[in-house]
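Protocol step 4 of 6: structure prediction from sequence.
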Amino acid sequence: MIRDFAIAGIILLLSAGAAATSNAVRQVRLPWVREPLPATPSNVRTTATAVEGESVTSAPTATDAAKPGMIKIDAVLEHLKAGTAKFVDAREEREFVEGHLLGAINLPSSAIYKNIERVLGAASPVDRIIVYCGGGDCEASHHVADALRRDFGFSEVLIYENGWAEVMSSGRFNEYFATGAEP
């Protein structure tokens, strides 16, 4: 019996060591202790108005957070031209620095709670937010959109699902392209 506990202890120590080593070599390390969430805003608008090319749900709920609205390229360009939305880039900081939409706020999906003040300082929960990432199979925009709706009370969060891949391939965003760490 003591031998079984010793083997279990050794396996536990080896597993913990493997996890620590894996985290140490990651490009973006996971925190050992979760940071406390900021207080959520209380002035949340409960209705949303859609423009052509987008679908919007009402106040955030558990089911809404799992399927926030989507937006297409023409509506994205319309919002960029009119300045009627805040853009959030869910890609990692190094990708953001290499290129992003003009005025976009970088909120990497790997560090949402660490960097949320960037968004809270530039947008209110009643602003329309369009979140994008690399496009295609990229899930970062979905994670960021879910957190904005669920944890921070943003009611008009849309996902530009084709994201950065379409921005680069379409040739329609040239006047809205920026580089560097600043929005």
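Step 5 (inspection) to follow. The chain has seven helices and seven strands.
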